[in-house]
Amino acid sequence: MVHSAKFKPEKNWKLLYTRGCKLIRARQLGFAYPIRSTRQLLDQQ
């Protein structure tokens, strides 16, 4: 039996309370968090 629910993202991102939890979960899901604007990305370089 495959537990596909294990790999589904949270229905509400606000349910992850701390920034650290959000960073870990975003890494698991394979997307960048926090989402940066184009301006922030250009300023970073």
Architecture overview:
This protein is mostly helical and 45 residues long. It has 2 helices and no strands. It has helices at residues 19-29, 38-44. The longest helix has 11 residues, at 19-29. The chain starts with 18 loop residues before the first helix and ends with a helix. The mean pLDDT is 78.
In short:
Helices cover 40% and strands 0% of the residues. With 45 residues, it is mostly helical. The longest helix has 11 residues, at 19-29.
Give the topology.
Layout: H1 19-29, H2 38-44
Helix content: 40-55%
Query: What gyration radius follows from the Cα positions, in whole Å?
Result: 14 Å
* Spans of at least 5 consecutive residues with low confidence: none
Structural class, judged by helices and strands? mainly alpha
Characterize the largest beta sheet: strand count, sense, and whether it forms a barrel.
none
Mass-distribution shape: elongated
Q: First CA to last CA: what distance?
A: 46 Å
Key traits:
45 residues; mainly alpha; 0% strand
